[in-house]
Amino acid sequence: MARWSVVASLSGGCGTDREPIGPPDVALPPLDVGLDYQLGGAYDPPSGVGIVSRDRTAPVAPGRYNLCYVNGFQIQPDEEGFWQTEHPDLILRDAAGSPVIDLEWDEMLIDISSAEKRAAVMTIAATWIDGCRQAGYDAVEIDNLDSYSRSGGLLVEDHAVAMMQAMAAAAHDDGLAIAQKNAAELVGRRSELATDFVVAEECNRFDECDVYREAYGDHVLVIEYRAQDFSAGCAAFPQLSIVLRDVDLAVPGAAGYVYDGC
User: 128 or 10, which is more confident?
Assistant: First the structure.
């Protein structure tokens, strides 16, 4: 398994070249091995799977490269009470004072619109990331990097990049690799994001896989939800880890469960 040293760039410049410089060392996902995406519940990985992504509250899969899912830019519905009670000022609100909602997933957006807000968010996110380390995960996957696109103009790319850079620094301090999750439009700012690899949903469907590969090489983990996109990806990118899952990410034996890998 390759080991690369990473550092968060604070210069604000753009670029995609990353050199292995300085501590800390982090382990990147192994290349061209089976992948499973288990955010809907942990279960024994299928044969041949070497990389598993699970929610930060789940235990790791022994003997695999484990990726810890953290919803770092939006609020899970079952965690709304915590934010409303303990951190109401960190919920993004519109001009009327109402929370801004990602309607597709019914999730409130986190307010990362200022350096002060981002620092406050990091006091929470850092505990999640350290929890991933303590649980034995190898890397973190921070979801909803592109929440700014659903913010009604209250958030912009620069806010998201700065927030991710802070999360990357926390992950690297814990010896964990960190993934860019989706947001192909931010690939050109990889050096600012300080991310090490990509978790890309439906990049075959939306013709984005090559965009990610230009910056991250073969360190692109792909999840597809339609059989035709999965088949196309397996044919076009045989060197990548690609998984076909159902949108609900059901567990084996549950209605709608789908898994295939290449």
Answer: 128
Amino acid occupying residue 38: Q
Q: Is it true that the peptide bond before 99 is cis, omega within 30 degrees of 0? A: no
Task: Supply the pLDDT for residue 20.
Answer: 33
Q: How confident is the model at residue 11 (pLDDT cuts 50, 70, 90)?
A: very low
Structural domain count of the chain: 1
Q: What is the DSSP string of 204-231?
A: TTTT-HHHHHHHHTT-EEEEESSHHHHH
Note down the domain range covering 207.
Answer: 3-70+118-261
* Residue 91 per-residue DSSP state: B
Residue with tokens 């996957």: 141
Residue 82 resides in a domain: no
Q: Provide the CATH number for the domain around residue 231.
A: 3.20.20.70
40 in Cβ contact with 110 (< 8 Å):
no
Confidence of residue 4 (pLDDT cuts 50, 70, 90): very low
Q: In what order do the strands lie in the sheet with 177-181?
A: 34-37, 49-55, 65-71, 139-143, 177-181, 197-201, 220-224, 241-245, 259-261
pTM: 0.89
Contacts of 37 (CB under 8 A, 6+ apart): 53, 223, 243, 245, 249
Q: Which of 170, 167, 156 is nearest to 114 (CA)?
A: 156
Q: Sign (positive/negative) of CA torsion 231, 142, 217, 37?
A: negative
